[in-house]
Predict the structure.
Amino acid sequence: METAVLAHALAVIDKVRYGAEIDVSEVALAAMFHDAAETITGDLPTPVKYGTDDMKEAYKRVETHAEEKLVAMLPPDLANEYIRVIRYPETYRRYIKAADKLSAIIKCIEEKNSGNRDFDSAYDSLMGAVKAMDFAPANDFINEFLRSYSLTVDEQQE
């Protein structure tokens, strides 16, 4: 859900500030279902999924098969609606990918705020990955909103 909210925010930023012609509601909906295949495949760590080109291609086939299996489990009159959001347009991918990473960054911030230093390197790695995307809406989100996830309850009231 957090990824969907963040993807929506990124799409809104892109639309309002940069003139993107994007349906922000459809981006949010696609983000809600972006990991649907994982209900069958489970969640593999990113280094495993994308470690080599062969692994990336193999995992994509597994993911596509899982999506087909999920859709086949639906009544035929509903299937097309879910195919549409599970197999979202390529133009949404950047928003969803950035939102997924931002969600992981927020998790790292929460853990670090609790004193868990195990998330320091993951935070740095994820921030580097988002910045490497060179995606203005994600950069705007980081610059304007990410700090709020580090505020205490008292600081949020100010």
